[in-house]
C-alpha cells in the first residue's frame, strides 16, 4: 500500500512540474525585466529529467535486464532486435532531440569525461570544466555562462549518478568504455542544460 502511495505521489509531482513548465510554451515572451531566473529554470528542468530517467532506469530497464523478461530486451543496438528497447541514455538523447525540434529556448544533453559514444564528450571548455567540477564535488551542480557564436548562454551541469546496477555493469563491461571501474553512486557523467540569455 505504501509503495502504491509513493508511486502516486511521484506521478503527481512529475505531472504538476510538467504542466507548470508547459504552461509557458505559448508564443508570448516574458518581459526582459521579469521572468524566471536561469538557475531556477535549469534546476526545474533537471528535476523533471532526472525523475523521468531514474524511473525509466529502475522501473523498466531494471525489470527487463539480464534476469528479466524474455519478451523485451534493453540493448544498445535495440533497433536491430525484434523486441529491443532503448537504454536509459538513449531515451534521454531521444528526448533531447525531440525537444530541440520543438523549441530553441533551451537544449540539454548527457555528457561524460568517459563517454562510450564519442558524441557524448564535452565540446566546450565550460562543459569540460563543469563535468570535472561535478566529479570533484559530489552532490554539487555547476553553473556558468559561455558565449557561442553571437549568443551568450547560461549553462548548468548536473551530476549523472549511477542509480542502477545494470548501468554500472554496462559501462564497466562495454568494449568502448574508457573507464571500467564505476560503482553504484559514482558520477558517471553530467546533464548539460544550456539556455540563451
Automatic annotation (TrEMBL):
Return the Pfam families for the record: Tll0287-like
Q: Which PROSITE patterns match?
A: PROKAR_LIPOPROTEIN
Name the source's superkingdom: Bacteria
Q: Where is the Tll0287-like domain?
A: 44-196
Where is the signal peptide, in residue numbers? 1-30
For this UniProt record, give its keywords in alphabetical order, as a comma-separated list: Signal
| Identification of the protein by name | Tll0287-like domain-containing protein
Phylogenetic classification of the source organism: Bacteria, Pseudomonadati, Pseudomonadota, Gammaproteobacteria, Oceanospirillales
